[in-house]
Amino acid sequence: MMTMPSSHATCASLSFVGRSVAAALALLLFGAGAAADEAPASAPLRVAVYDVPPYGSAEPDGSINGVSVDLWRRSAEVLGLEYRLVPISQMETILAGLERREFDAAIGAITITPERLARVDFSYPAHRSGVAVAVRKDSGPLAAFLNYAAVVSELSPLIAITIALLLAMGVAIWLFERSMRTPTGDSSIVSLRDGVYWAVVTMTTVGYGDKTPKTAIGRAIAILWMLVSIALVSILSTTIVSKMTADRVIAGSRLKDADLAGRRLAAVAHSSGAEYLAEQHLRYVPFDDLSGALTAVEAGRADAVVNSVGALQYLIAARFRRTIEPPQGVIAPAYMAFALPQGSPLKKPLDRALIEITASVEWRRIEESYFER
């Protein structure tokens, strides 16, 4: 016969179960709290720095400085961001890293282009920029001679006409003067060679007087040739001088797209200059860095470098001042910005910070100081 448990035993059992559940909950809560206390803080942002001065570069002491780095630091301070800067020398490495989200942001001389917009996002524009062209300086006697030879070759049709007229006048004066004898029995112009010699002397206004026409027709030809030769010499001299002056002015002025056709061009691989040349269907030689491209122009292996204007101006002033002309203006205006992975939550707060910082007079003064160094 079964006996029912007493009420006292039942209460004891329930009390034991309650204490066990409470102990388990307490242990669970304690363990969760301890795990939370032991969990590491969120990792700092990985920020790639495109290693191109003066926007961002690694110094010999290991520090990373530049105008874009300075702007990032100010923005991160406003937003309370922790970060780690990683210098990168290749643009393609930066873009691929952003696509794979290996980097949380990228700063430096990163120009906004359609090709890059298809791969990454950009912040509010951080710096004004643009694609510019740098060419080698032409100086010294050899450069002047080569410039003169180039101008003369361009004027070859006019020079050919002048030579043809000179020979025609030499032949004409010889035909009418060869039978004329002087009192001593000599002819002033006895051969075709004498006729050409007279035409050259008359054209250059030297007028030695050793060969002079004696017939009325010969003297009429001489008068005509004097007038024509004055006009020809004037046209030739003024055209050569004006052409050489214009070439010098053009060399120091802003180059255009048409000026790049047919030249040996250099650009940093995957840079804004390289993308611009590809868009214009202009052939170029890619280089790993801007210094290598400028060295090629300095050595005469390339005619011009196409790159962002700020980087060109800075590096030419620092290392190539004597051999390369700094760019005068830009051939394609553009803007630089911080690059971000597509859909990054940093974009909106970063845009607000950049708008506030870049609008200040203080920041404009700081930015200008980097390019005056």
Indicate the topology.
Blueprint: H1 7-38, E1 45-50, E2 57-58, E3 64-65, H2 67-79, E4 83-88, H3 91-99, E5 105-107, H4 114-117, E6 121-122, E7 127-136, H5 140-154, H6 156-177, H7 192-203, H8 216-251, H9 257-260, E8 265-268, H10 272-279, E9 285-287, H11 290-298, E10 304-308, H12 309-319, E11 324-325, E12 332-336, E13 339-340, H13 347-358, H14 361-371
Parallel strand pairs: 1-4, 1-5, 8-9, 8-10
Antiparallel strand pairs: 2-3, 6-13, 7-10, 7-11, 7-12
Q: How would you describe what is shown here?
A:
The structure is a single chain. With 373 residues, the chain is an alpha/beta fold. It has 3 domains: 45-126 and 337-371, D-Maltodextrin-Binding Protein, domain 2; 142-251, Helix Hairpins; 254-332, Periplasmic binding protein-like II (D-Maltodextrin-Binding Protein, domain 2, 3-Layer(aba) Sandwich), CATH 3.40.190. The chain has 14 helices and 13 strands. The protein has helices spanning 7-38, 67-79, 91-99, 114-117, 140-154, 156-177, 192-203, 216-251, 257-260, 272-279, 290-298, 309-319, 347-358, 361-371; strands at 45-50, 57-58, 64-65, 83-88, 105-107, 121-122, 127-136, 265-268, 285-287, 304-308, 324-325, 332-336, 339-340. The strands form 4 sheets. Strands 7, 8, 9, 10, 11 and 12 form a 6-stranded mixed beta sheet that branches. A hairpin with a 5-residue loop joins strand 2 (57-58) and strand 3. Helix 2 crosses helix 13, helix 6 (156-177) crosses helix 7 and helix 6 (156-177) packs antiparallel against helix 8. The chain is rod-shaped, with a radius of gyration of 40 Å. The model is unreliable at 1-18 and 20-40 (pLDDT under 50).
